[in-house]
Design a protein that fits this description.
Length: 278
């Protein structure tokens, strides 16, 4: 291959152990587009750095002077009193943890897509629209580029869950737009607690299972052991036929059975012999 062709190529070639050549295509993007994508990808990290820089420049001297004016034991007491507020569940701590895991999930998901070669022929990855926190983890929305679909992620749920350090992942496409794909990353199970407080259970929500002696539902499903069905054989009345046979007719059923020395005769509701049809 000429050198000029190698220089104009937008990808790079890599030889494997078996001698095959794998071509990895890189997208041809301008520097402004790369800069905008980089800012979008690292926007939360840039927000944090900008906030820390503003605090250090605008209020750094005031904060330092305040701690220097107080004795050491007072500063230590303030930090000790602040630690329980940080450790306990509160809206600020919940927001910080949710943002941290959303940013981590987005970066890990993009790295997994790169390693799985989820690219189109132009070398573009699916565009990550956003990552939002849920009660079980995070949900990530992907916009599939031309040449990509949800079929490119078939049987990749376990790989995505392992890359995001999660327990499992679920992949589904939008019903209205096939280019919109939803990935649910589950990190915790809200039903895994031993005792679940529910207003539907009222007074028995916190009662151990062994303490509940009588269950109304199970008592209702238990079959009744009393013999409330009378014996139908007591309601039989003998019937006399012309052939000298004694037949018994049951008032509860439509068929009547009669026995004799030679054969069994079965009569219908109207007295007709139906023995040949049974």
């Amino acid at each position: 291959m000429p050198k000029s062709t190698l220089k104009r190529s937008s990808g790079r070639a890599r030889s494997t152990a078996r001698g095959a050549v794998e071509t990895i295509t890189r997208p041809n993007q301008s520097w402004p587009v790369k800069l905008l994508l980089t800012i979008w990808r690292w926007r939360w990290e840039l927000y944090v750095l900008a906030a820390l820089a503003y605090i250090a420049i605008a209020h750094g001297t005031a904060i330092t002077g305040y701690f220097r004016s107080n004795p050491l034991w007072l500063n230590a007491l303030m930090l000790i009193a602040l630690f329980p507020w940080i450790a306990t569940d509160n809206p600020a701590r919940r927001f910080v943890l949710n943002r941290f895991w959303c940013v981590t999930t987005r970066h890990r998901l993009r790295a997994c897509l790169v390693e799985m070669r989820t690219l189109n022929f132009s070398g573009n990855l699916p565009f990550i629209l956003g990552c939002f926190a849920t009660k079980t983890g995070q949900v990530v929305w992907l916009w599939m580029r031309p040449g990509q679909s949800v079929e490119d992620l078939d049987n990749k749920a376990e790989s995505l869950a392992a890359a995001c350090w999660a327990s499992k992942a679920a992949i589904a496409r939008s019903k209205r737009n096939a280019a919109l794909v939803r990935i649910d990353i589950d990190r915790r199970d809200p039903l895994a607690k031993k005792t679940i407080a529910s207003p539907l259970l009222q007074d028995t929500s916190d009662v151990p299972e062994a303490a509940v002696a009588d269950d109304a539902v199970m008592a209702f499903l238990t079959p009744d052991t009393t013999d409330s069905v009378p014996n139908e054989s007591t309601n039989q009345q003998p019937v006399r036929t012309g052939a000298g046979e004694t037949r018994s007719r049951t008032s509860k059923t439509k068929t009547t059975a009669a026995t004799s020395d030679s054969q069994t005769v079965i009569l219908g509701a109207n007295g007709e012999d139906v023995s040949d049809y049974v």
